[in-house]
Amino acid sequence: MRAPSALVVLALIVGDVLLPGCSSPAKPTPPLDVKLSAGQARAGKVSRQSELIGGPIAYGRVGDVWKLYNTRARFLIQDIGTSVGLDIYGGNLIDADLVRDGDDGTNGNDLFRETFPIVGLHVQDPTRIEVVSDGTGPEKATVQIRVTGGDASSHILPQLDDLGQDLGGQITTDYILDPDVPYLKIVTTYQTAPGQALSTLLLGDFLSFGASLSLISPENGFGNDTGVVRFIGSVGEGTSYGYVYPQGPIQIPVVDASGTVTLLKSQPVAKDGSAQAVRYLVVGDGDAASVMAPMYALRGMATARLSGAVLDEAGAKVPGTRVSLFPAPFTDKSTPIDQARAHADGGYAFSAPPGDYVLVTTGIGRLRGAPTLVSLPALGVMKDVKIGAQGQAVLDIGETAATPGAKRVPTPAKVSFTSTQVEPPDPRFGPDPTENERNGVHAVHLSPDGGGQVFLKPGTYDVVVSRGIEYELVKLPGVVVPPGGSVTVKADLSRVVDTTGWISGDYHQHSQGSIDSPVPILQRVAEDLAEGVEFPAGTDHDNIIDFRPYIAKLHGEPFINAVPGDEVSINGVGHFNAYPLTVDPAAPYAKIGAKLWAMDTVPGFVDRLRKMEPNDIIVHISHPRTQQLAGYFTTVHYDPTTGKSDTPLSEFEAVEVNGDIGQATDYLPENDAAIHQQATSSKPHIPTMRDWFSLLNQGLAVCALGNSDTHQRNGET
């Protein structure tokens, strides 16, 4: 597993605010799909589809979740024993979204993964979930759901669990939603066991925004830097989130998909006493500014309003563009403290502490606007900002006919644009692909059918058209993209490698179904088509995603087929891909989440998974020598010179060798002593091909795989 972008944050906080106890009403659950009026909120257990929250990352199911919502936002709490993620116990937040017009429980835009409290490096093991207030009583409209239970090891990372405190007291987590606000209040309280006192107790959260969102903080700008921050925002397409601790700054020891933990601030707890943490999860409309403003207010920090419109060179308003807010003075090292997106009317708005700032505008395929200095007084100010011109390339990619006189046919293709004469991308400006493209190019289009359009900054480009390793490259130098206009990119690809009788496969791919991949499934399939992959396996982390409906949506059946699989990600032990897997419509989440492998051995979960499948499956060991707490051979100290390891290896059909082939000397008998010594070290540098040869020498029929383990767009599929 590659190092992810902004994914999982462990936020450790300490608080001392007490919440009065409440009693649970004994009455039927109110409908949770009715449109509410100002001053109203509702809470209860979801009993029908229309009460759910839809979206690319939505996992709530009827009967398995509890809901809180008001006129602005809605949230789903997982029921006990219905795990769909890393929390194997339940009682944690799994879905969050704005309230949207016409939503029927399926067409929302949830992009949030999950969060659960950490108490003494243990997690909550709930025994009861109850509605304290459902919002229908005459006394108040605030709603509240309470989760009560004890503490337990997470069973998701052994290195974390070894450091946890066995507490024995009671943990209560209250989810509280006021009317007409876009944020959920989360209060976790630890009450000591009778006679218990603690010299230290660490409180916090495992906060998993997921890679569909890009992290931003006033201190670090965009990115996954650690340290101390006022609060955290996360930006996604159409939905954004924020996390704030009103009593002080948040210490971020780790930003990583594996959730590795560093011990931080803690507090003592008096005999027969309690400790408590109060924090808020904010939901916004897809930009950072819509969640930053409430978080400044919740922190009690004075702000002023900065607003205006984004204008093009002709003075017309430009919706959908981004305005980044930098502290003055602006340099090439500055990072933004906030970012707003221009709405349908072209207007943008920030709430920020009074002071001097610089505004820079960006947009897909547009030249950046010149840095604009603005002084923000306490009363606020309006400031229009300019953005540069946009260009466009229209694609026409076909395949050269194999026989003379045959008809030219459109073909899937990858089209890459590079330039030394155009304003280069700048990742400081966040997730906009124009400013954040991968692999040193200005732009990439992954066309499933040879057509489409690409918005590009005006200028001159060198264009490369490709379709994997079976087709010759087509290079088109000096393509001019005019400002405000378009250019046609036409190319014919020739198939030059005869692969009759062979199929190209990639059996390790990630999409938005993984916690650490932002790529929509449809885009991942389009990339497979464009790269000439004919038979991929969808192997998202602890999830089962089927590419085939998306292949059909792109009309890609003549070129590609796929099998659904799962990368069973036992962090701290190893990762294992299994495919093809089936999904039971009556229990669609039976094989996903950490519950599939938690509290089990590798041979145990592999045997159980095989028994759950009606047909034979392939199980392969993924990146077995990775140093990121995910390499199985490294974890068990597999020694290729003896074929022995700390624990017996499970039966498997394949192993990822990829490009890890080492040097010729790694295979000579005189180097066996050095390899043997490496095998017992904490960070061995043994090439995986050496391990594969060892398995073959033992008579094991194990296939060697070269996979991409792709996570990002344009990610080396």
CA radius of gyration is 27 Å
Strand order of the largest sheet: 14-13-16-17-20-10-9-8-7-6-12-1-18-15
| Chain-averaged pLDDT | 91
Percent helix among the residues? under 10%
Distance separating the two termini: 14 Å
Q: Biggest β-sheet: count, sense, barrel? A: 14 strands, antiparallel
Structural class by helix and strand composition: mainly beta
Sum up the overall morphology in one term. globular
**How large a portion of the residues is in β-strands, by DSSP E?**
25-35%
- Summed up, the helix count is 8
Which segments are poorly predicted (pLDDT under 50) over 5 or more consecutive residues?
1-7, 15-25, 257-264
Number of strands: 44
Structural description of this entry:
It is a single chain. The protein is mainly β and 717 residues long. It is built from eight helices and 44 strands. It has a 14-stranded antiparallel sheet with strand order 14-13-16-17-20-10-9-8-7-6-12-1-18-15, covered by helices on one side. Strands 40-41-42-43-44 form a five-stranded mixed sheet. It has a four-stranded antiparallel sheet with strand order 2-3-4-5, with no helix packed on it. Helix 3 (521-531) links the parallel strand 37 and strand 38. It is globular.
Write out key terms for the chains shown.
single chain, mainly beta, 14-stranded antiparallel β-sheet, 5-stranded mixed β-sheet, 44 strands, 9% helix, disordered N terminus
Write the layout of secondary structure elements.
Elements: E1 8-12, E2 41-45, E3 65-70, E4 73-78, E5 93-98, E6 114-119, E7 122-133, E8 143-152, H1 158-161, E9 170-177, E10 183-191, E11 198-201, E12 203-208, E13 214-217, E14 221-222, E15 227-229, E16 231-235, E17 240-244, E18 250-255, E19 267-269, E20 274-284, H2 289-298, E21 304-311, E22 322-327, E23 338-341, E24 347-352, E25 355-362, E26 372-376, E27 381-382, E28 385-386, E29 391-399, E30 409-410, E31 413-418, E32 443-447, E33 453-456, E34 459-466, E35 474-481, E36 486-493, E37 505-509, H3 521-531, E38 535-538, H4 548-553, E39 563-564, E40 566-570, E41 574-579, H5 602-612, E42 618-622, H6 632-635, E43 654-656, H7 672-679, H8 688-697, E44 703-705
Parallel strand pairs: 21-27, 21-28, 29-36, 37-38, 38-39, 42-43, 43-44
Antiparallel strand pairs: 1-12, 1-18, 2-3, 3-4, 4-5, 6-7, 6-12, 7-8, 8-9, 9-10, 10-20, 11-19, 13-14, 13-16, 15-18, 16-17, 17-20, 21-24, 22-23, 22-25, 25-26, 29-30, 29-33, 31-32, 31-34, 34-35, 40-41, 41-42
